[in-house]
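step=predict obj=Membrane metalloprotease n=246
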Amino acid sequence: MKKIIAVITLCFLVFTSCSKDDNDVKSNNKKTLGASAHDLLSEDKFDSMVIEVVYVEGFEPSATAINNFVSFLSSRINKSGGISVEKRSIPVPGNTTYTNAQIIAIEDANRIHYNDGSQIAVWAFFADAKSSTDTSTSVVLGTAYRNTSFVIYENTVKKLSGGLYKPSTAVLESTVIEHEFGHILGLTNSGTTMLSAHEDPDHKRHCNVSSCLMYWESESGSNILGGTIPQLDPQCIADLQANGGK
Ligand SMILES: [Zn+2]
Ligand SMILES: [Zn+2]
């Protein structure tokens, strides 16, 4: 009898210690938006990065957009050990809209990569349906919601691109991905300190330069001019450089 109790106790201890470690590991990737800006920009703790790109079947982002995203990162963050992308699909979850809670639940159920040793991990989800906050006059194309997580509403991006008088799908995808990642890098004034005052008082966390990637309208792609992806303005770049970026 004693033996059985001992065995049960041991199993319990092993189980609790495993699940505790697991939660500790995952908690580093479940912090607030902007909390990992310095770790992503600098090489102080992490010299490489893995981006887990997960899309609902049929809603794969274009290869051009992912390539653009990686070159955007390479030009701004210090990761001499490299930036790798792991892409895969998940079956259709069957949602007609997504609340933030549903987006978080999908990440928690499917995410494989968490910060590990000197490698920092990022989660990007490409959804097959619209945000539950969309209205007839305003739609959400993407949201950065945790320190290393963002969602792109790929179905909505596709609807607003690729036609006459519309930006190309790859340009709109790239703009929204890079804009959301700008928030994860702490722009503007939310995790990365501003060197000069350039936060838009009417649109918090956004830059007041209308041509900047971090201008609020970049989130909807409505400042895409001449079919090109908006770039960061010199003030946003200076902020990133002062926080460990390049
Ligand atoms: Zn934004
Ligand atoms: Zn800016």
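step=describe
Confidence is low (pLDDT under 50) at residues 4-18.
step=end
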